[in-house]
Amino acid sequence: MDQTRAPLLEALDEYRRLDRYGFTPPGHRQGRGTDPRALATIGADAYRSDVLVTAGLDDRTSSNGCLTDAEALMADAVGADKAFFSTCGSSLSVKAAMLSVAGGDPGGLLLSRDAHKSVVAGLVFGGIQPRWVTPQWDAERHISHPPSPEQVRAEWERNPDAAGALIVSPSPYGTCADIDGIARVCHERGKPLIIDEAWGAHLPFHDRLPTWAMNAGADICVVSVHKMGTGFEQGSVFHMQGDLVDFDHLSDCADLLMTTSPNVLIYGGLDGWRRQMVEDGRALLESALQLTDRLRTEIESIDGLHVCDEELLGHQASHDLDRMQILIDVTGTGASGYQCGDWLREHARIDVGMTDHRRILATMSLADDHDSAERLLNSLRRLASAATDLPEPQTIVLPTPDEIQLESVTSPRAAFLGPTETVPASRAAGRIAAEQLTPYPPGIPVAVPGERLDTAVIDYLRSGVRAGMAVPDATHPRLDTFLVVRE
After folding, report:
1. 371-383 pLDDT, tens per residue?
2. CB-based contact 112:172 (threshold 8 Å)
């Protein structure tokens, strides 16, 4: 295929060049009716480009096939059989993948317990029973790693009727599963493997990065192009290969969830990013990797800061690591990760991708350069000096690996949609959660609807909130009360 083409961008360019006009949504009419203050902030070009239907770019209303061509080029670029563009993020894509594989199947779906909250939403939507695969747990550092092939095999033996498996890799920390080994375990049983690779859109384009899921044998791979690529927020693609999943059914499941008014800017961003990566991706990523290597070394030399690396790999840890995710342990400063994230935001005008009780995460991209790297370095040096003057961090009651594995009592769908009541925190232990309780970022639920709350998890979440943790999807974000299944 001609990878120099970008069918969506070409059609959009033609629309503007021919000065076409549509008496159809969007009602802002290429920005003519937009508040000038909004135009000044967002940009008139953004509004002039918001013309998906009238430009004939939506294959539901046009026969020109621009979207189909763009998706075919994406699949060809990365060696997948099929690709499908989503303008509702990987949160939609992963739900569609789950529905297509396990929706309505009584056997349920094998899931790594470190799954994103969108996976739990997929359980609720699809009425899917989770068959949890416990992640590997580093009790010393209080960090989870993707499950091993042996753990997945053991869960298959307990649940041989499960419809398939879903594994998150890379994790938000950059740690990666042994996808090749897990895929072999699934395929021995003729069952598909879904990889939630939201953080791995860049992986197909450089051999120094961890192995991309399609190359490792996954059947469906979901990627968020806005995370590690250069697409707009909400731009996501799911790729498919092999014959264990029906692609037509997969796209039908996506249509159930997807907006009928998608944004052409998101489609165009996906199209343009694919062309950029085919033509220049390896060189851009090589430059970014070299910059990141230097940055990791220099951050490690700052007193009080430690860049996590080899300790994230090996036995009872992860199979591989995306080193463009710079995970920094700040324990040596005496401050918490929450405090360090807040300090950087307030005093250095820098936002980091994630904070927890002892770490912050700086995510590098191919857009970074010497200037942005120096800004991060200088800010971290200032942080290390200032941390000694920060208040002593609030104590967080950290659960043991056994305590954080909650008992599944009923299905997430039944708990979430059934009768509920609110109880004070002092009476929540022993009750069945009717809500997700998800520290964010990274967005991995500590408690899922249908699981029985225990004192250790409640104390962890409540002490975490006092220390700076955000649990935004809780009914009461301060966690003075909990939403539980009505008795």
Report:
1. 999 999 999 999 9
2. no
In terms of DSSP H, where are the helices of 301-369? 337-347
Residue 422: CB atoms within 10 A of its CB come to 15
Strand bridging mode 193-196 / 220-224: parallel
Give the whole-angstrom CA distance, residue 32 versus residue 45: 11
d(CA 196, CA 332): 33
Picking from 60, 45, 470, 30, the residue whose alpha carbon sits closest to that of residue 255 is 60
**Does residue 315 surpass a pLDDT of 50?**
yes
Give the class (CATH, top level) of 7-276.
Answer: alpha beta
Topology annotation, domain 282-389: Aspartate Aminotransferase, domain 1 (3.90.1150)
DSSP secondary structure, 76-89, as one string:
HHHT-SEEEEESSH
**CA 235/CA 269 separation, integer angstroms:** 8
| CATH number of the 401-485 domain | 3.90.100.10
Domain positions in the chain are 7-276, 282-389, 401-485
173 closest CA partner among 322, 396, 367: 322
Peptide bond into 170 cis (omega under 30): yes
* Among candidate residues 298, 273, 299, 295, the one with its CA nearest the CA of residue 284: 273
pLDDT band at 364 (very low <50, low <70, confident <90, very high): very high
- Tell me 310's DSSP state: G
**pLDDT level of residue 22 (50, 70, 90 thresholds):** low
CA dist 85 and 67 (Å) reads 8
DSSP-derived letter for residue 437 is B
Does the structure show a pLDDT above 90 at 249? yes
User: How do residues 85-128 score in pLDDT, each as one tens digit?
Assistant: 998 889 999 999 999 999 989 999 999 988 888 999 999 999 99
Residue type, 98: M
The Cα 29–Cα 23 span in angstroms is 8
pTM of the model: 0.91
Backbone angles phi, psi at 468, to 5 degrees: 120, 0
pLDDT at 63: 46
CB 263 within 8 A of CB 87: yes
Lowest-confidence pick of 127-131, 229-233, 426-430:
229-233
Task: Indicate if the alpha-carbon torsion angle 364, 366, 372, 373 is positive or negative.
Answer: positive
**3-state SS class at 327:** strand
Cα separations in angstroms, 128 against 99, 101, 105, 110, 477: 8, 10, 7, 10, 27
Q: What gap in Å lies between CA 82 and CA 245, rounded to an integer?
A: 11
Q: How far apart are CA 231 and CA 229, in angstroms?
A: 6
